[in-house]
Structures are given as C-alpha cells and as structure tokens.
Specification:
Blueprint (H helix, E strand, L loop, with lengths): L1 E6 L2 H6 L5 E5 L10 H11 L10 E5 L8 E6 L5 H16 L5 E6 L5 H15 L16 E6 L4 H25 L7 H12 L6 E6 L1 H7 L2 H7 L7 E8 L8 E5 L1 E5 L19 H16 L4 E11 L10 E4 L5 E4 L6 H13 L5 E6 L3 H7 L4 E5 L2 H13 L4 E3 L17 E2 L7 H10 L8 E5 L5 E2 L5 E2 L4 H19 L12
Parallel strand pairs: 1-6, 2-4, 2-5, 5-6, 9-11, 9-14, 10-11, 13-17, 14-18, 15-16
Antiparallel strand pairs: 3-4, 7-8, 8-11, 12-13, 15-18, 19-20
Helix pairs in contact: 3-4, 4-5, 5-9, 6-9, 8-10, 9-14, 10-13, 12-14
Bound molecules: ligand BES, manganese (II) ion and zinc ion.
The site of manganese (II) ion has 4 residues, from loops.
C-alpha cells in the first residue's frame, strides 16, 4: 500500500481528478465554500441523506461539478481516533469491492494527529489482501491512498510518517500469521527475519540458530516441543540498534509455534487449522522490526523467536516426561499442548543474558485468555508497575488495547509436582494466569518483564478469518515513547536564561 499526505481543501478536492474520493465529515462541520463538494455535502445534509455519524456512508456517482466520478461522503462522528477508524474502515470496505484502484481520503476539517494516524492504519488494514497462496491475484484492490488535510503542519507530518511505518509492520505481522503452516515453517520464518536485515545500511541484524546451537545452549524445554516434528526448529535473534551501543535493549520474545496440533495431548479436529496462527507472537516481532527498520527510532531492541512445530510422533515428548530447561529448572510436561510456555521459558532465559531494560513476551498462549477477555483486549501480565502502565497506555493510544491481569503467588500452587521443579500445567481455573506464573519463574526478580497473551486478539475466526497484526501497534507506540523519552533525557540542557525575579 502506497500512502501520500497532501494539503487539500474542499475546492481543490472538487476539481482534482481522482479514481475515487472519500470525504470525511464529522459532527458540527458546516461547509462554507462555494465549490461543488461543499454544495454536495450541504445539500445531502439538509435533505437528511447524509448523517455525520461515524461509519455512515452516502455513495454519490457523477455528481454535478465534481472532477471525480466516485464520491463517498463518510461520517466521522466526533473526529476521535476510534470514530475515524470506523469511518475509514466503512468507506474503504465499500470502495474496495468496486473498480477503483486509488482513492483520496479527504478530511473536511483539520484532523488531530491521532485521528490522522487512525485513518492511515485503518486504510492499510482495509486494503490488505492475502494473496500468498492464491493462484490468481484478487482483482480490483486499492493500491494507493492519498490523504488530504485542509492544512499541513509538523505534527500531522510526523503522525502520518509514524502511522505509515507502523502500518507496514502490522501488514508484515498479518501476512506471516496468515500463511499456512506449510508456507510458514520455522525455516521460512528465519528467512523472513534474515530478509529484514538485508539491504545496504539496514539497521537490523539477524542471527539464526539451528538444532545444534540450541542443544549447545541447553534449551531442553524448547527442544522437547520440537522433537515430534520433521521440520527443524529455529531460534531467531534480531537486533535493532537505534540508540547508543551501550544502552540496554528492550527484548521482545515472540512465540513461534508454526503449527500446534497439541502433540501427544492432541487437539480435537474442529478448527485445528486455526493453530497455524500460533506463531502470531513471532509474526508481531517480525512486524515490529519491519516498522523499526522504516522509522528508525532512538531505541535498542532485540527480538527473539523460538520457532518450531508441535506434532505427535513416535519421537514426540510424552505426558509425564521431565526435561531440563536452559535455566537448569526441570519441568514435568503433563500436557504437551501447553507447549508455548516451554519454548518461551528457554527464550526468556536467553533474553535475560542480554541484560535488557525490559523483557516483553508476546504469545497466543491460552484458550483461557480468550474466555477471560475475548477478542477485544490482550491479556497483560507484568512484574513491574511502570512497565505495565506504559504498555497499557501504549495500547490505548494505538487502539490496540490490553488489560492487566494478576500474578499473585497463590496462583502458582497448582504448578507444584513431586517429579520435577515445576509442572507445565495447573488445573482448569485461571489458566491464563497459571501460564503467566509458569513464565515468571524464568525471569529474575529485579528484571522488568511483561507477558502479553494475544490468544484472543491476534486473529479473527469465522467468515472474517485472518490475522489482525496485533499487538504491533501497541508495541510500536511503547517503543516510540521510549525513544522520545530517551532523546529528551539526553538533549543538552537549554542555556539558562537570565533569571527574572519579581
Ligand atoms: N496455542 C494454544 C492456545 C490457544 C488456544 C490459542 C485456543 C488460541 C485459541 C496453546 O498452546 C494451548 O494449547 N494452550 C492450552 C493450555 C492447556 C493445555 C493448559 C489451552 O489453552 O487449552
Ligand atoms: Mn498448545
Ligand atoms: Zn500453542
């Protein structure tokens, strides 16, 4: 998707030729110009055919005095980011089914930077089409969007550039999560990560470990999950350096189960295909690195992806087997379907060795989280209040929200076992929390750590089946916030002005 931002007032929008024009008008906007577009909006409103409610549309064709044939009047309510998102989704959803290849999105009144960001992200979302395993490309898709605002300023330019970068990241995450397991193997994920590091002057570096290196590191929990598959495991390490070399990085850990059959604790057949999305955490890490590569904020980030399949096989790990994790802790694998925490615990131990400022793991970890929070908010667990607050705030700003869940030690009771240091499952109660408690054992006390359970938010089921690209928006807002804070902290103090005292 190509985006362009330009100054566009209603009289110009009326006379400029476009493939399709979407006019975004909110509550309280009254057109004052003499131009044909203002007149159209005015008449349609007066007649009651156009309502400025978010998501309401009035399609017009070959309207008088307009250079563009296809014009959509789109209500954007109070102009809030949520309302703008609704409006753009509705408008481009309608246009996307038609023959238009390009569209101009024109704000009738100046949007806030946050509303502009929402428009770009919603447009990118609406225009994404999955094609990787189709024999014929989908006809008629919007490939280019011009966003017009009545007046441009630095804040809008920055918001636009940011949104464009984040949108690229979201698209990468959706694309990799959507690809079927036989087209997104651990090896192919590693190749995708390596591709992010290619190109002259790329700020990303990538290192890929295979079975031998992983064995040498002693990642016995990760290895146990991979045992049952003929696909080789990969441990992917991505590095982005945007700040000083010595600055502690943020470590992002993404669950990369490219297919989760459950292993010997086999899942039922119904909807098992959706377990191709079980590497959505990994896909979101790839997406974040795609966005970092374009936006180049002043932070250091390390991305870690343990990638493998979870399959039943003669060599597969069995319920009751005890394995030794990289941390040295032994784990009794009571249920081979609780595999996410097994690959993540070794990645967390690896992460800790990098002395990161924070570790954030992202995983489609538990069905219990879907029951608790549905598809609206991701589950957030953290051992650090400041980190939790920063992530929660980033989620609100990015319209990619999460909700903090508890980590009381009492929740860890059920993980006790006679046969190892810890079991990989507890009872049925509070499944999302006991999974988080398991992970917490692999993070040192003073190490700020957060866990995002995206089992409900990473993809949609049913007719709209597909990956959402979450939580790339949340993570990018968090990282962009860190970069801003770091830069203001490092900026030379302003020369003191002569003190004036009353
Ligand atoms: N990948 C699943 C979690 C999942 C389930 C995500 C449904 C989205 C929808 C995970 O590996 C898993 O199977 N978890 C088990 C854990 C249980 C065995 C303790 C679950 O949630 O049922
Ligand atoms: Mn599982
Ligand atoms: Zn899983």
């Amino acid at each position: 998707m190509d985006f362009e931002l330009k100054t566009l007032r209603l009289p110009q929008a009326a006379t400029a030729k476009a493939d399709a024009l979407v006019l975004l008008a909110g509550e309280g906007f009254t057109p004052e110009g003499e131009d044909a577009l203002s007149a159209l909006l005015d008449h349609a409103s007066a007649a009651g055919d156009f309502k400025p409610e978010a998501g309401k549309l009035l399609p017009c064709y070959s309207a008088q005095g307009l250079a563009t044939r296809r014009v959509l009047l789109a209500g954007m309510g109070d102009g809030s980011p949520a309302a703008v998102r609704k409006a753009v989704t509705a408008a481009l959803g309608a246009l996307g089914k038609g023959p238009a290849r390009e569209a101009t999105l024109c704000f009738a009144a100046p949007p806030s930077p946050a509303a502009l960001r929402a428009a770009v992200l919603a447009a990118a979302d609406a225009c994404y089409v999955y094609t990787a395993t189709k024999s014929k490309p989908e006809p008629c898709t919007l490939a280019r969007i011009t966003v017009g605002v009545p007046a441009l300023n630095a804040a809008l330019r920055e918001a636009f550039a940011q949104a464009e970068g984040v949108a690229r990241g979201v698209t990468v995450a959706r694309e990799w999560a959507n690809r079927p397991a036989n087209h997104a193997t651990p090896t192919l994920l590693a190749a995708a990560a390596q591709a992010l590091a290619k190109g002259k002057g790329s700020p990303v570096r990538c290192e890929v470990l295979g079975p031998k290196e992983v064995a040498k590191l002693g990642m016995g929990a990760f290895q146990a999950v991979a045992r049952g598959s003929h696909e080789e495991l990969r441990f992917i390490v991505l590095r982005y350096q945007g700040a000083a070399k010595g600055d502690a990085p943020v470590a992002l850990v993404g669950k990369g189960i490219t297919f989760d059959t459950g292993g010997i604790s086999l899942k039922p057949a119904a909807e098992m295909d959706e377990m191709k999305f079980d590497m959505s955490g990994a896909a979101s890490v790839l997406g974040v690195f795609e966005a970092l590569r374009h936006l180049r904020p002043a932070v250091n980030v390390v991305g870690l992806i343990p990638a493998c399949e979870n399959m039943p096989d003669g060599r597969a790990v069995k319920p009751g087997d005890v394995v030794t994790s990289m941390s040295g802790q032994t784990i009794e694998i009571l249920n081979t379907d609780a595999e996410g925490r097994l690959v993540l615990c070794d990645a967390l131990t690896y992460a800790e060795r990098l002395k990161p400022a924070a570790i954030i793991d992202v995983a489609t970890l538990t069905g219990a989280c879907v029951i608790a929070l549905g598809a609206v908010r991701s589950g957030l667990f953290a051992n650090d209040d400041a980190l939790a607050q920063a992530l929660q705030d980033a989620g609100e700003t990015a319209q990619d929200p999460c909700w903090r869940m508890p980590l009381d030690d009492d929740y860890a009771q059920g993980l006790k076992t006679r046969f190892a240091d810890v079991a990989n499952v507890a009872g049925r109660q509070a499944g999302a929390v006991t999974a988080a408690k398991f992970l917490q054992r692999f993070v040192a006390k003073g190490q700020p750590w957060a866990h995002l359970d995206i089992a409900g938010s990473a993809w949609k089921s049913g007719t709209a089946k597909g990956a959402t690209g979450r939580p790339v928006g949340l993570l990018m807002h968090y990282l962009l916030g860190l970069a801003r804070a770091g830069q203001t902290a490092k900026a030379p103090a302003k020369p003191a002005k002569t003190a004036r005292r009353a």
